[in-house]
Amino acid sequence: MKKMLKKAGEKILDLLYPHTCPFCGEVTERRICRPCAREVWYIREPRCKKCGKPVRSESSEYCFDCLHTRHFYERGLSLWKHEKQVRTSIYRFKYQNRRIYSQFYTEELAKKFGKYVVVWRISLIIPIPLSRKRKKQRGFNQADLLAEGLSQLLGITADTVHLQRTVDTIPQKELGNRERRENLKNAFWWTGKELSGRNVLLVDDIYTTGNTIDSAARSLKKAGAEKVYFLTISIGQGY
């Protein structure tokens, strides 16, 4: 009887809140609708061995950005390029309160990159924090949801409290690369226990030039972290 009631309740919920494609928002019974499944491509090899951005050939170990930039993280990976449907999906996730997308994103991140997390010997997952002002305006931090979801799927502790943004920076998308670096100088501070010898995974929604990840990684290494890696939903094309 309980099972029958449960199934009936699930059917009612499906009618009231049908599943929609996380990329286009159309109602679908599939995880991703057929048109989006054909158009949204996961990033594959060859990748930059540092930031994970696509490179043109196997002989190119690093992308242009990473050849000319000193990074404080060891390596990172992203699911998709930040374009078309992916850009729209993340916009809805962040600015239209589509928090439900976080489950889809974290499942994809865990499925695609779980083996790397094991190889990297990650012992702590940390989201890139928002300033208090921006978090209050948005109502949530999208990176917190990603970190908590990955924590549950991978069985690794997430700390959404102790990496703090010390200044309310100007949105990075409004700045050039040099300005972005200056904007994020000393923007993060680790307030928890020393991270001595630990390998840490940073999580965020988008990797553009890497300045945000770098600034956070630098603060974590100052706090004793041995190595810092990152995972993001999408990655830009560089500068």
Word description of this protein:
This is ComF family protein. Belongs to the ComF/GntX family. The protein is built from 9 helices and 6 strands; from the N terminus they run αααβααβααβαββαβ. It is α/β, with parallel strands linked by helices and 239 residues long. It folds into 2 domains: 1-39, no CATH class; 48-235, Rossmann fold (3-Layer(aba) Sandwich). Residues 5-16 have low confidence and may be disordered.
SSE layout:
Layout lengths: L1 H15 L17 H6 L24 H4 L7 E7 L2 H12 L5 H19 L4 E4 L4 H7 L3 H13 L8 E3 L11 H7 L4 E3 L8 E9 L3 H12 L4 E9 L4
Parallel strand pairs: 1-6, 2-5, 5-6
Antiparallel strand pairs: 3-4
In helices, the fraction of residues equals 25-40%
Instruction: Give the N-to-C terminal Cα separation.
Output: 60 Å
- Round the Cα radius of gyration to an integer and report it: 19 Å
- CATH topology annotation of the largest domain: Rossmann fold
> Judging from the principal axes of the Cα atoms, what is the shape?
globular
Counting H and I runs of at least 4 residues, what is the number of helices?
9
**What is the helix/strand order?**
HHHEHHEHHEHEEHE
- Uncertain runs: 5-16
Largest sheet: 4 strands, parallel
How many strands in all? 6
Quote the beta fraction: 5-15%
Mean pLDDT figure = 89
What structural category characterises the helix and strand content?
alpha/beta
The CATH architecture of the largest domain would be: 3-Layer(aba) Sandwich
Total domain modules? 2
Name of the CATH first level of the largest domain: Alpha Beta
Strand order of the largest sheet: 1-6-5-2
